[in-house]
Amino acid sequence: MEPAKISDLEEVYGNLVSAILGFAGITLFILLLVGGFKFITSGGDPKAVEGARKTISYAIMGLVVLLLSFLVLVLIKAITGVDVTQFKIVL
Predict the structure, then answer these.
(1) pTM for this structure?
(2) Which of 2, 7, 45, 46 is the most exposed place for a label (fewest CB within 10 A)?
């Protein structure tokens, strides 16, 4: 077995970011489902409907923030030519 190298951090970091983004996407999807379920089962109760709307709104806002953050990174790459979406160790 070969000892770990500093360049292995690139792969670890890439896997970690992918896992976090995947977890965030799954969480937002579940929150949308929960909000929809709350909305359907509210029975016309104004407080329950408001709670369901807040859950759905927060999930959509989280999705928008996630997408905008990625778009900012792509915009930085387009303007500067530096690919900040890839983690590279330069020695």
Answers:
(1) 0.76
(2) 2
The distance of Cα 40 from the centroid of its chain, to the nearest Å, equals 26
Report mean pLDDT in 10-residue bins for the chain, 91 residues.
Answer: 83 88 92 95 92 95 91 92 82 71
Determine the residue type at 49: V
Surface-to-core class of residue 36, CB atoms within 10 Å of its CB (0-12 exposed, 13-18 middle, 19+ buried) = middle
